[in-house]
Amino acid sequence: MKVVSFLPAATKMIYDMGLQDYLYGVTFECPKEAADQPKVVRCILEGKNYSSIEIDRIFSASKAQGKSLYWVDDALLESIAPDVVFTQDICEVCNIDTVCTETAVMKLSKQPLLVPLSPNNLQDVFECAITIARALGKEEVAFAYLARLQQKTDQILDQLRENRSPLKRVMLMEWIEPIYNCGHWIPFQIAAAGGVDMLSNPAGDSIVTPWEKIVKYNPEVLVIAPCGFDQKRSLEEMSLLTAKAGWETLEAVKNNQVYIADFDMFTQPSIGTLIEGIEALACMFHPRIFKADGNVAKKFINYTQSVQSLQSV
Question: Which of 106, 87, 103, 86 is nearest to 95 (CA)?
Fold first, then answer.
């Protein structure tokens, strides 16, 4: 069986479950494990270093014109002749959507099974792992994989209960300019880590959120994780936030509880990386109870400490 993944999250879960031998093609932004795989999907933003504002404008213009940011290497896809193609229909700016995928697949001599993965909440992402494994005839692998991950979230919940930890009032930003709140599965991650984001949109799209509303909400913890940005990239644009009126008055700022986090723990819906996100959030929300180690420790930084480190250099 030959599989092509048009979705980085699906690619990540395929590798996490040890099913990569079925994989014959991926997108340009799939995780490092798939670096040697043929790139079937490309993007007009690939290799460019646009600002948040520029990316938003490009996407808005593309959407208004009915165009996609992504394109498929039709010749490569035809040569692979896949049996299964995984795609998504959640965000047309983050990844190629099902409509574009269907258009590319219709041209193929051999028609593959098209499997859309479109989770809305955290439980849906768990189900996606089962859907992937089932399509490959390896459903039992998914159940073992998910059981291991469930143990991690259970341990976090047990620790929160044991310490009677109150919920922290938090906000997670999915974009800096304009500011977007968080949606879909991220509010559920926040809840699992011992927090509540009253500005979020659980199981729905993230939306533009006025700065005045954020100042009034006054989060205790602020997590900045723009979609597609790692810590270094986000730090380059922090001045867009710190220059805003009322920044210094935020409780999160006054108490040094502003964090910069890698996007792939949140807006990259592989269940393994989302569980890492829950572990990281628990460390941000309740640092007296949870300490980051291993890979999780590398995935986020305290903004104040990072600024102080740069100033001391």
Answer: 87
Three-state DSSP at 233 gives helix
At 48, which amino acid appears?
A: K
- Model confidence at 32, pLDDT cuts 50, 70, 90, reads confident
Residue 59 lies in a domain: yes
**pTM exceeds 0.70, yes or no:** yes
Are 220 and 95 in a shared domain? no
DSSP characters for 274-288? HHHHHHHHHHHH-TT
Which domain covers residue 47, as residue numbers? 3-118
Closest C-alpha among 182, 181, 166, 266 to residue 220: 166
Tens of pLDDT, residues 161-173: 999 999 999 999 9
- Angstrom distances, CA of residue 282 to CA of 221, 237, 243: 11, 25, 28
E-assigned strand segments in 97-207? 113-116, 168-173, 183-184, 195-196, 201-202
- Establish if 65 belongs to a structural domain: yes
Percent of the chain with pLDDT over 90: 71
Q: Is 20 exposed, middle or buried (0-12, 13-18, 19+ CB in 10 A)?
A: middle
| Total structural domains within the chain | 2
Cα 159 to Cα 165, 166, 197, 282, 289: the distances in Å are: 9, 12, 20, 10, 8
3-state DSSP percent of the chain in helix, strand and coil, to 5: 45, 15, 40
Pairing of strands 168-173, 221-224: parallel
User: Token pair for residue 275?
Assistant: 């569980």
Rounded alpha-carbon distances, angstroms, from residue 235 to 138, 226, 232: 41, 11, 5
Tokens for 199? 């500005």
Q: Is residue 152 part of a domain?
A: no
Contact between 25 and 37 under an 8 Å Cβ cutoff? The reply is yes
In a domain, 142, yes or no: no
